[in-house]
Design a protein that fits this description.
Layout (H helix, E strand, L loop, with lengths): L7 H16 L6 H8 L3 H7 L11 H14 L6 H14 L3 H15 L2 H24 L4 H24 L8 H16 L3
Helix pairs in contact: 1-2, 1-6, 4-5, 4-7, 5-8, 5-9, 6-8, 7-8, 8-9
Length: 191
């Protein structure tokens, strides 16, 4: 095994998701994940403290991109327009490996209560990051929370649509932004 082979983190995530889907989260060991990824256990632990953290791989980066986009949105932007800027920035950073991971991750999460809980916590983290960014723009509390939750829902819906496609020429951002617009339109009928 190559000690510093590039792409080890991505290979570990893909290997883990496949193993979780095939044999279940509880039955999968760190040693199996490392072996399937073609790395050592010590390489695994350089990237992740334990197998639970594989599901939230990249969450810090995703949160940072969302917050940067919201923060850098024009001052005149509405809360949803600011969220759209954040979603676009984060979505544009996602590439083919993220698209390939989608169906595998969905299957692994569906097969494990613990992974379902981790996935829920991930969504809460994304909503919290966006809410805090909106609050720092001076958006009132209930409005900031609502816009952030709509942003999380749009991201989830857009990502699902993107990963379900047979082939993709546009990237994730158009799907997420269309989902956000659909949600914005739907909210007008709530009153």
């Amino acid at each position: 095994m190559a000690r510093w082979e590039p792409g080890a983190r991505d290979r570990l995530v893909l290997a883990a998701v496949d193993l979780f889907a095939d044999q279940g989260y509880d039955a999968t060991t760190v040693a199996q994940i490392a072996e399937r990824a073609g790395v050592t256990k010590s390489t695994f632990f350089r990237h992740f403290p334990d197998k639970r953290e594989l599901l939230v791989a990249g969450q810090e980066t995703l949160c940072r991109l969302l917050v940067e986009g919201i923060t850098e949105a024009p001052e005149t932007a509405t809360p949803l327009e600011a969220v759209a800027v954040g979603l676009e920035r984060a979505s544009n950073a996602m590439g083919p490996i993220n698209r390939e991971l989608g169906p595998r991750l969905k299957a692994a999460i569906a097969a494990s209560t613990e992974l379902q809980e981790r996935d829920t916590l991930k969504r809460v983290g994304l909503a919290t990051a966006m809410t805090e960014a909106l609050l720092s723009r001076g958006i009132p509390d209930p409005l900031a929370h609502l816009a952030a939750e709509l942003g999380v829902l749009a991201f989830k819906r857009g990502y699902t649509e993107w990963t379900d496609l047979d082939h993709d020429d546009t990237g994730l951002a158009p799907h997420v932004l269309a989902a956000l617009e659909d949600l914005r339109t739907a909210t007008t009928s709530l009153t």
